[in-house]
Amino acid sequence: MSTLTLVRHGQATPFQGEAGVLSPLGEAQAAKLARYWLANRIRFDEVYTGCLVRQVRTEQVVADYFREAGEPWPAAARDRAWNEYDAPGVLGRILPADPRLAALAAEFEGARGGPDEKRNFQRMFEAAMLAWLGRADVDGVESWPVFRERVSSAIRRLMAGPTGRRVAVFTSGGPVGLSVQFALQAPERSFLDVNWRVRNTSITEFLFDRDRLTLDCFNAISHLDEPALRTYR
To answer: Distance of alpha carbon 135 from its chain centroid, rounded?
Structure first.
C-alpha cells in the first residue's frame, strides 16, 4: 500500500485566483506543519502542488524547513489538476445570473461591515456553490463535471504508480473534499459538505493501491497547537 497526504494551503486572501498569497498567519501555519513533520520524522517520496501561489508557497515553506534541518525533501512537481475550483467565477457569473440567489446577495451586501457579514457571506456562497453543482455548463466558469474529472484523474494517476510510496500534495479545500467523496463513493453533495470543514494546512490522509483509495484521516490539525492558528479562510 501507498500513502497519500493532502495538505490544504495556509490562510490566504480568499478568491484571489492564482495571485492570492499567504497571509502572515498562513506562513506561520505552514511553518508549524514543517516543524511537526520534522519532530515526528514524517518523510515523503514524492511531493506535488497545484499551481496557485498559495499552494506553491505553503510547500516552499515546508521545504525550506526540511532543507535547513538537513533532511531530504523531494523536488515538488506542479500539477494544475490540484488547483481549486473557480470560486471567483461562481460568485461573478452564477450568482448574478440566478434570481433565486438575489435575496441572499442582497442580505450579504446589507451586512457588510457588520457582525453578520461573514455568516451572510457563507450562506450566499454555499447557495451559489450548490447552484454550480447542479449545472453542467456555465459560460466562462469551469463546471462541476470538469472539476470532478480533473481531480479524480489526478488521483487515478497516483494510484497507477508503484506501490509503497509516500506522496504529499499541497492543494486546496475543493480537491480535498472531492478526494474524500471519491474515496467514499459518496453522493456529489458530500463534496461540498466536506469542503466547508477543511481547515488551513490541515492534513487528510489516504491509503491506496492500484485498485482502491481508502480514507484514513480527515482534517487533522495536531500541528496547530494554538487556537488562533485554526482557520477556515
So the answer is: 22
The dihedral of CA 126, 216, 202, 179: what is its sign?
negative
The rounded average pLDDT for each run of 10 residues, N- to C-terminus, in the chain (233 residues) is: 98 71 96 98 98 97 98 97 94 85 87 87 92 83 95 98 96 98 95 96 98 97 96 91
Q: Are 226 and 196 in contact (CB under 8 A)?
A: no
Burial of 198: CB neighbours in 10 Å, binned 0-12, 13-18, 19+: buried
Phi first, then psi, for residue 41 (nearest 5°) are 55, 45
Q: What are phi and psi of 132, to 5 degrees?
A: -60, -40
Backbone torsions φ then ψ of 6, nearest 5 degrees: -100, 130
**What pTM was estimated for this model as a whole?**
0.94
CB-based contact 206:179 (threshold 8 Å): yes
